[in-house]
Each structure stands twice: as C-alpha cells, then as structure tokens.
C-alpha cells in the first residue's frame, strides 16, 4: 500500500508537506483518480513522491518504451507518460477488465491516451509476448510474482535501462521474520535477487512504501 501523504519515511509530516507542495503536486486529474479509488476501489496506487520519481527516471533516461505491471486506474502510468519524450509509449498490463476499462477513461481525461497502451491479461501471460527492447520497467502487480517478473524483464529491458518495483518495504513486513506469507516472502526473495544479481546495480529509495531501482548492466 502506498503512503498517500507522499512522505519520505524518515522525514516526518512537516518536511513531507513542504517538499510535496514543491516537488510532487497532483494536478486535478491525479487528485480525482485518488479520490475515486478511495471511494470506489482500493487506494493502492503509488504515492505522489514515487509517481514523481518514476516520471523523473523516465525523462532522465529518456525512456521511449516503458512497461508497467499493474495498471489499477492508470495513476502511475499517467505520471510516467508525462515524462516520455515525443513518440514514447507506456505499455501497462492489467488483469482486471473493469479496472482496465476505468483506466482507459482516466488516461483519456489526463490527455495521455495516445501514449499509453493497456495490455489486458495476467502479467505472467503477457510478458512472454512482449518484444525487447524496453528502457524502463515498473513492477506493481502480484508481490509473490515479483521474482518471476524479473526473469522476464531481464530479457526485455536493455542494458542501461532501469527496472523499478513498488512496495518493497511492504509496510516494514519484509524486515519482520515473524511474517512469512507468500507476498512477504516473494518480496524478500525479490530484494535478495536484485541485491545479488550480477546483471543489476540496485538500490531502494525510501519513497512511499519503498521503491527499488535497478540498473541493467
Ligand atoms: N501501478 C498502479 C498505480 O500506482 O497507479 C497500481 C497497481 S495496483 C498496486 C496492482 C494492480 O495489479 C491492480 O489493479 C490489480 O488488479 C493488478 N493485478 C493483479 N494481479 C495481476 C496480474 N497477475 N497481472 C496483471 N495485473 C494484476
């Protein structure tokens, strides 16, 4: 679950509000999506700070081809689409047809529908159908599947590209040995893998619920 305050985990609410107003303001469409998710679905989109970080990474590479696993309402896809160079595209994978339909409407409202393609289906079914090279991947679907996603993404993301993943703190549960459910164990395995995988140079940023960033060597 993302922290909707957009806080940095060690910074406290005052510094978070100060930085948030300067660096990760939501425009009206993003605010409406967040409100709609609170009312009609589950507000598990990335925090504003992670949205801005992803946008910045897309713009810095620059990433022309982005793949996202887990669309929900398109909130993070919109942040990333706004960092794309002209002609760039985000491919975002969503298994839930109603969410995919709703995301399509939000993408249109946000003015980025031409640069975001929703791929309907389960990530592990869609990933083998994709062709490299992608410049940036963002993982935000089933936590117990993160390692399996990574195996596909190591084929799809070019050297010099980035593989990012949300929720790697998992509310602190990854560091609590008493918690052993499949999602927590999946995230622990993912963290071990990106820490030791020789093809990656990785770190975890303390934005939202923990955002991992791995450079493909
Ligand atoms: N990235 C989105 C954002 O920040 O705006 C939030 C994604 S939400 C955490 C996870 C999404 O993954 C949900 O919409 C869920 O329906 C979708 N999902 C669940 N299982 C999936 C699967 N196997 N393949 C693709 N999407 C899946």
Topology of this structure?
Elements: H1 13-23, H2 28-40, H3 48-60, E1 65-69, H4 75-81, E2 89-94, H5 97-110, E3 116-120, H6 123-126, E4 134-139, H7 146-156, E5 157-166, H8 182-196, E6 200-205, E7 211-216
Parallel strand pairs: 1-2, 1-4, 2-3, 4-5
Antiparallel strand pairs: 5-7, 6-7
The structure holds S-adenosylmethionine.
S-adenosylmethionine (SAM) binds next to helix 4 and strand 2.
Question: Could you characterize the architecture of this molecule?
Answer:
The protein is an alpha/beta fold and 217 residues long. The chain contains 8 helices and 7 strands; from the N terminus they run αααβαβαβαβαβαββ. The protein has helices at residues 13-23, 28-40, 48-60, 75-81, 97-110, 123-126, 146-156, 182-196; strands spanning 65-69, 89-94, 116-120, 134-139, 157-166, 200-205, 211-216. The chain has a 7-stranded mixed β-sheet, sandwiched between helices. Helix 7 links the parallel strand 4 (134-139) and strand 5 (157-166). The longest helix has 15 residues, at 182-196. It is globular and about 40 Å long. S-adenosylmethionine binds at residues 44-46, 69-72, 75-76, 93-96, 99, 122-123, 140-142.
**Helical segment count:** 8
Low-confidence stretches: 1-9
Supply Rg: 16 Å
Mean pLDDT: 95
Tell me which ligands are bound: S-adenosylmethionine
Order of helices and strands: HHHEHEHEHEHEHEE
Major sheet: arrangement of strands: 3-2-1-4-5-7-6
What separation lies between the terminal Cα atoms?
30 Å
Helix content: 40-55%
Beta-strand content bin: 15-25%
Structural class: alpha/beta
Gross morphology: globular
Instruction: Give the strand tally.
Output: 7
Biggest β-sheet strands, sense, barrel: 7 strands, mixed
